[in-house]
Amino acid sequence: MSLRGSFFIILVFLCLACEAGFAGDTKREADFADEIAKMQIVGKRVWLETQGNKFLALYTETEKKLSHGAVIILHDQGGHPNQLQLIKTLRTVLPEHRWSTLSLQMPLREADATENDYYALFPEALARIQAGLSYLQGNKIDSIILAGYGLGALMAVYAQSEKPLAIKAIAAISLAVPASQNKSVQTLEFIKKIDVPLLDIYAEQDQATVVDSARDRRISAKANAAYRQDKINNESHLYQYDEGLVVKRIYSWIERVLASLPPSAEAVTTSGTSTTPPQ
Known about the structure:
By secondary structure, the protein is an alpha/beta fold. About 40% of the residues lie in helices and about 20% in strands. The protein has an eight-stranded mixed β-sheet, sandwiched between helices.
């Protein structure tokens, strides 16, 4: 084959790759799923699907007879749906306060990937959030909150900006404003478009892209009467000293938000069954 022919084939391949988007690291996802399968966890594993690809989620039903609804949880970069400390605490403690949780495995890149490498996966992240919504709605849950942490928070506001979802509110933990021209991470523009209640919660010693942009986020949200920003003092991005306080701030805020919504958005009783794991 000539050099020109080889170049043409490579060019076609690159164009197709760009059109389809970058694939995530399914091997890492499978490894995390295997690790979680070996654990004694609260809740149950369910398998959701986007375009024929299955991914893991952890559904934890509230122990209370009457539930407020459910919270979809999105982990930080390179994480998984049962990750310590914050994600596991969120998904297991919220059910004690009348909120079931569905913690999703978000798409991954290789272990040494940078945040920039993840931006191409945001359309897949949106598809997974929609699959989570469909699962909960299929279980007759119509009061749904979206809660994201770190990169998961950025995915949450991207998703709501890109295609408004059937959710009541968003809790964004450690929401960054990256110094990037990539259209998938224009946080301030996303915030301007969000008209559902938005909790913007961050740590006093959080990452610079979170702390330094706090005022900019408030300004972007000034048209949203249901926006609230909350700083957790004496904590870093990992919330390793009192992650329970973060959870308390979130469910307390959600309850206040619910109280301001129309009666049709009030509590519903939840139920649900696991889907079949992939063979």
